[in-house]
Each structure stands twice: as structure tokens, then as C-alpha cells.
Automatic annotation (TrEMBL):
The lineage of its organism: Bacteria, Bacillati, Actinomycetota, Actinomycetes, Mycobacteriales. This is 3-dehydroshikimate dehydratase. One of its GO terms (biological process) is 3,4-dihydroxybenzoate biosynthetic process. PROSITE patterns: VOC. Mg(2+) binds at residues 457, 535, 613. Keywords: Dioxygenase, Lyase, Metal-binding, Oxidoreductase, Pyruvate. The keyword Cytoplasm does not apply. GO terms for molecular function: 3-dehydroshikimate dehydratase activity; dioxygenase activity; metal ion binding. It catalyses: 3-dehydroshikimate = 3,4-dihydroxybenzoate + H2O. The keyword Metal-binding applies. InterPro entries: DSD, Glyas_Bleomycin-R_OHBP_Dase, Glyas_Fos-R_dOase_dom, IolE/XylAMocC-like, VOC_core, Xyl_isomerase-like_sf, Xyl_isomerase-like_TIM-brl. A divalent metal cation binds at residues 156, 187, 213, 261. It comes from Gordonia insulae. Belongs to the bacterial two-domain DSD family. PANTHER family: HYDROXYPYRUVATE ISOMERASE, XYLOSE ISOMERASE-LIKE TIM BARREL DOMAIN-CONTAINING PROTEIN.
Length: 648
């Protein structure tokens, strides 16, 4: 056997595909970090057609409005909106008169900026006008001024407006004023954060919708103003039904720009170029959800479940990974002479371990104490369709030749989600087919064991800074669906986790559980979380049988305390012998209250991060045994403490 330390692989960037026929796209400068120039650069480079200039960005810029206009034009960007104009109406007459002066000064500025559309948001002040007739009078006065100056006003109902906080109310007022320079600005956040029904938008006159602002957000229980100003995200990163929203807007006949307005604490310090690229990708995603032509890169379902898991182990930890794998039924089937990749197999599931250091295959620079899942493999009957699709979403794709197949030119679509996960789609990935590609060591291996039916789910860690981008990537390119996220407190922190699912052509479901690793933990290295996080879970029918088989193969499953089983007995009416069996085999249990049951056990963590799980789903259980996750973490910490103290 020869073990190469470098792989003979070729990577080639796929050119960006802009043939995606989107509606005109825009982004508010508030979404992006940096100076106004840097924001414009990022917007232009990502392919946006226009920008909303957010007033504080202009006020703080060294360039005057004429120069900003030139800077935008030089980059091919239109300035579609200037915003916001706050607190226009007032019950205090002097104040309203002063507001009109302020409005005129902004029109002066907009003359220089070459922008004719001003966003006017509803007032949240105690002095807001709460009488519709009087409010109409004031709006009409402002509209007359705008008409004189060749400007238009887009009225937006803020979710926390004192009197106007509902898009229908705003639209009624716009109607009552009846001046064609006054129209509506629809912002998905203000509508969906209130759980309002966007269906009414479909009946609005298309000419009355002057502007469209798009933002998603995670479902949070908090003050709506704080939610809006700190926690918005891009379409495809949160929990709002933006597809339903955009369909209502399209039904109304709106033809103007789709503009992103994302106030986000994360984006304020993220790289502007990356945010802008994600932002454009999010509109591409939304356009597809809304039924736009995906320009020949439509989503093809993968043909079946996850069939291979690639572990980046490195030379030091590879034997430890091998030992644990053998305990749960995966025996060595072959070693690739060129790359040193080792194939382990149970039935049709392949686990491929990279025992070399820092290769293009896996996670370059992974420390020796941190084996980790680097890629998963799914079958596709058309892998190049995935390459095209990734390119259509501006996802850089590296083409990597499979081991031993360089000559046949097989392509692997290797999509980087984070440094530690690449999703690997190839035409040929089943364990049997993998096997043909390896020099077999031993030459005549035992036939593989058959403990498992497949991969139930894969758990991955994603750094806080990569989280939003990874969610968007998994949802857009792969068409994954998200459930509501979940925060699980445990012994080392609160774990934010998000389950994603992907239907396959065979009617099954690929499941990924992403967990957020706080950036401060990985600022000086790769993702780390005490107690481990990255895992592959294998599915079986009879977990007691499998647990016994694993025990006889040498597994010491992660030891679960008696307290846990005493609590199970209190919580559920489970047969006593079942509880005793679970106690004996360290099997954990969950029940969804509708007859669905979940039984699972864990291997100890290998190195800092990686473990394997064996699971059994019954009667349509849909979760992941999340309630037991703190028990696993505490059990793992305890196991280590004992190990370090020299006991075993
Ligand atoms: O938070 C705000 O004040 C604010 C300003 C302008 C907008 O378009 C908006 O949606 C919110
Ligand atoms: Mg808005």
C-alpha cells in the first residue's frame, strides 16, 4: 500500500452565470459594512442594478451628493430610493411646518443625487397624527411639494408606527390623497413580523406600489423595533414566508426593483462583498420560489439518501476513527493507493477516511486532534446539472477528480458550505462502486456487515460568521427546507441548531442538522465545541439488536447516567423491561406525543469533535432527539474527565 500525502486533483473555477433573468435588483446601503464607496463597490460587483441610499451613510460620507451620484453611475448602479424621511406628520402645527422645510432640503439633496423617490415612513412618535382626515391633509401638502419639485414619495407603514402600522391603512391613505406622486412602499418585514396576511397586496393597483423592500427574519419573541433593527436577514435565511409575500406582490402587477433592506448586527461587521453576493443569491432564490424561469438550472432532486460520508481524520487520529467505525460495523474494505483514502463500509453505506494531512479533499489545516466530517455524498443522475445550478447561484464550484478516476474524467461537484463541510455530488457514489475504485486491502475482504439501513442524518457545526451564508446556500442551491430553529441549553453553552431537510427523487428525506459554533470559539482555529458536535447518525430497525451487536464488536457506548432512566420512568409509561434494556445498553429515548418514538445511542467522541450515533425512528417521528442532547454533552464531559483522571 502506498499513501500519497498530496492528492492529484485539479480544481477549476466555473465562470459566473448571470443569465438568470431576474427582475431589477437593488440593495439598501444599510445592508453592507464599510464606507459608502465600499458599499457601492460590493453592490456593483455582486451584480445589483441599483441601490437605496440610506441617509446616515450619505451624511457620514466625505463625498457630496453629486459625487455620490457619479460614483454610483460609474459603477453602473442606479439610485432607486433615498431613505428614510421620518416623522413627517405632527399634531403640533409648528412642528409640521418645520418638517416641510426639512422635506424641501432633502429634495435639494435628491436633485444633486439624481434620485426622485423618497421613502417616508409612518411616525412612531406620540405627536403622530391619529386622525385620518388630518393625516391625509398633511400627506397631501407634502405630495404637492414633491410634485412641484419633480419628486415622488413612497409611504411605508412601520410595524411600530403609532397610528399607521398596517400596509392596508397606508394604502387607504395614499388612495384618499389621490396624488400620483404619492405611492406605497411595501416592506416584507413590517408585514410579516406582524403575522399579517400579504394576500391583500394582490388587489393593490400596480401604479400605487412605488417600491418593494425585502427582508426575512428568524421567528423571535421580542420588541418588533429591536427585531427589525438588529435581526433581519436575507430571504432564505429566516422563517418568514417570503415566497407567499412575493407572489402577492407579483399578482398586483408590480414591475419595479426588488430591493433588499436588511438591518442586521451580523452584516454590519461582515465582509461587504460576501454579504452582497449572498444578497444577490437570495433574490435569485426568491425569484425561483416565485416561479421565475431559472434559466436552465432548475433543481433536480438527488436520486436517494446520503450514501457516503467522508471523514477528514489526518494521520494521527485515523486509527482511532477506524477503531470506532469497526465497533459499529464498518470494516476496512480498501485503501486507495494514490490518495490514501480508506474505505469503510456497512451494507451500502461508505465511510471514507482521509488519513493524510491537509489535502484538497477534506478540510485543509484541520488540527490532528479534530477528526471531522468533511463531505457527504449523494447520488445524482445528472451531476453536471448541479454544477450548472451552483454556477447560476454564483457559488464557486471546484471540480475535483475522484480518486482513481482521474483518467475517466468523472466530475465531483464539491460545494463548500464551510471550511469543514463540502457537499459532494457525483454520479457514482455507492459503497459497492466506491469499492471498485480502491485497491482492496486485504485483497479478499470479508463481506461487509449489514447493521444499518442508511444515513439518518448528518450533524455539522457552522461558525456564527458563516451561519447565514450557509443557510442560504443549503436552501437555494440544494432546495433544502428549514423547520423552526431550536435553542438547546447544555453544559457548555446554548446550542442554536437548525434542521434542514431535502426530499429525494425516491421519496425519502436527506436530513442535516446544523449547529452554530460561536465565532469567539473558533477565532483562533477551526470550529470547536467541548463535548463534540459533528456527527453521522446511522438508521436501524431494531436498535436493541444493533446495540448488542456493537457491544460484541467492542463498542463501549457513551455511558448514560441512571438519573436519566429514573426520569424516563417518571415521564413515560414505558414497560419496565424496556427501560432496563435501554439502561443496560445506554439507549436514549424521545417521544413526540403523537405516537412517534426515537431511540438512539452514541459512540464516545473521537478527538475533540466527531462522534457517531445510531438511531431508530418509529411511527413517523420527525425530530432528532434534541431533548437528549444536553444529556449526551454532559455524559461526554464526564467520560473525558474520568479518562483524563486515568480511570476508564
Ligand atoms: O427602522 C427604521 O427606522 C426603518 C427605516 C426605514 C425603513 O424602510 C424601515 O423598514 C425601517
Ligand atoms: Mg423598510
Amino acid at each position: 500500500m502506498t499513501t500519497a500525502t498530496t492528492t492529484s486533483t485539479a480544481t477549476a473555477a466555473v465562470p459566473v452565470n448571470r443569465g438568470d433573468r431576474l427582475p431589477p435588483t437593488a440593495i439598501a446601503t444599510v445592508c453592507l459594512s464599510g464606507t459608502l464607496d465600499e458599499k457601492l463597490d460590493a453592490a456593483a460587483e455582486a451584480g445589483f442594478d441599483g441601490v437605496e441610499i440610506f441617509e446616515p451613510d450619505l451624511i457620514a460620507a466625505p463625498a457630496g451628493p453629486r459625487e455620490v451620484a457619479r460614483a454610483a453611475a460609474d459603477r453602473g448602479l442606479s439610485i432607486d430610493l433615498y431613505q428614510p424621511f421620518r416623522d413627517l406628520d405632527s399634531t403640533v402645527d409648528d412642528r409640521f411646518a418645520r418638517n416641510l422645510v426639512r422635506l424641501e432640503r432633502k429634495f435639494d439633496l435628491m436633485d444633486d443625487l439624481g434620485c426622485d423617490l423618497l421613502l417616508v415612513c409612518s411616525s412612531p412618535l406620540d405627536t403622530a397624527v391619529v386622525d385620518d382626515d388630518r393625516l391625509c391633509e398633511q400627506l397631501a401638502t407634502a405630495a404637492d411639494l414633491a410634485a412641484e419639485r419633480g419628486k415622488r414619495l413612497a409611504y411605508e407603514a412601520l410595524a411600530w408606527g403609532r397610528h399607521v402600522n398596517d400596509y392596508r391603512h397606508a394604502a387607504r391613505l395614499v388612495d384618499m390623497v389621490g396624488n400620483p406622486v404619492l405611492g406605497n412602499c411595501l416592506d416584507s418585514f413590517h408585514i410579516l413580523s406582524r403575522d399579517d396576511d400579504p394576500a391583500g397586496i394582490a388587489t393593490m393597483a400596480p401604479d400605487s406600489i412605488f417600491f418593494l423592500q425585502l427582508a426575512d427574519a428568524p421567528k423571535l419573541q421580542m420588541d418588533v423595533l429591536q427585531w427589525s433593527r438588529h435581526h433581519r436577514c436575507l430571504p432564505g435565511q429566516g422563517n418568514f414566508d417570503l415566497a407567499g409575500f412575493i407572489r402577492a406582490v407579483q399578482a398586483a402587477g408590480y414591475r419595479g426593483p426588488w430591493s433588499l433592506e436588511v438591518f442586521s448586527d451580523l452584516f454590519r461587521h461582515a465582509d461587504a462583498g460576501r454579504t452582497a453576493r449572498d444578497a444577490r443569491r437570495s433574490l435569485r432564490y426568491l425569484a425561483e420560489l416565485a416561479g421565475h424561469d431559472p434559466a436552465g438550472a432548475e433543481l433536480r432532486r438527488v436520486t436517494g439518501d446520503v450514501v457516503s460520508v467522508r471523514v477528514a481524520a489526518g494521520p494521527v487520529m485515523a486509527p482511532k476513527v477506524a477503531e470506532t467505525l469497526s465497533h459499529i460495523g464498518f470494516d476496512l474494505q480498501g485503501v486507495d493507493s494514490e490518495t490514501g483514502l480508506r474505505l469503510y463500509r456497512d451494507a451500502d453505506i461508505a465511510v471514507v477516511v482521509d488519513a493524510t494531512a491537509g489535502t484538497v479533499w477534506t478540510a485543509p489545516g484541520l488540527p490532528a486532534d479534530m477528526p471531522s466530517i468533511a463531505q457527504i455524498g449523494m447520488r445524482s443522475d445528472d451531476p453536471t446539472a448541479w454544477t450548472d445550478r451552483a454556477a447560476a447561484f454564483d457559488v464557486p464550484v471546484a471540480s475535483v477528480a475522484a480518486p482513481g478516476t482521474v483518467s475517466t474524467g468523472d466530475e465531483v461537484v464539491r460545494l463548500e458550505v464551510t471550511d469543514t463541510l463540502a457537499v459532494d455530488l457525483r454520479a457514482v457514489v455507492s459503497a459497492a462502486e466506491w469499492q471498485q475504485r480502491f485497491d482492496l486491502v486485504p485483497r479478499q475482504p470479508e463481506p461487509p456487515s449489514h447493521l444499518f439501513d442508511g444515513v439518518d442524518h448528518v450533524g455539522i457545526g457552522i461558525a456564527t460568521a458563516d451561519w447565514e451564508g450557509a443557510m442560504l446556500l443549503l436552501r437555494s442551491v440544494f432546495g433544502m427546507h428549514v423547520d423552526d430553529g431550536l435553542d438547546v441549553p447544555d453544559a457548555v453553552g446554548t446550542m442554536r441548531s437548525q434542521a434542514l431537510t431535502m426530499p429525494t427523487a425516491s421519496g425519502s428525506t436527506v436530513r442535516i442538522v446544523a449547529s452554530m459554533v460561536p465565532s469567539q470559539l473558533d477565532a483562533h482555529g477551526p470550529l470547536r465545541r467541548r463535548g463534540g458536535l459533528t456527527h453521522a447518525a446511522f438508521a436501524c430497525d431494531d436498535i436493541v439488536d444493533v446495540a448488542r451487536a456493537c457491544r460484541s464488536r467492542g463498542l463501549r457506548a457513551l455511558s448514560i447516567p441512571d438519573n436519566y432512566y429514573d426520569d424516563l420512568r417518571a415521564r413515560y409509561d414505558l414497560p419496565e423491561n424496556m427501560i432496563e434494556q435501554m439502561r443496560d445498553l445506554d439507549i436514549l429515548y424521545d417521544n413526540d406525543g403523537h405516537g412517534g418514538e426515537f431511540l438512539h445511542f452514541f459512540t464516545p467522541t473521537i478527538g475533540e469533535d466527531l462522534f457517531f450515533e445510531v438511531v431508530c425512528r418509529r411511527n413517523g417521528y420527525r425530530g432528532y432527539g434534541e431533548v437528549n442532547s444536553p444529556v449526551r454533552v454532559a455524559a461526554e464531559l464526564h467520560r473525558r474527565a474520568v479518562e483524563e483522571a486515568g480511570g476508564r
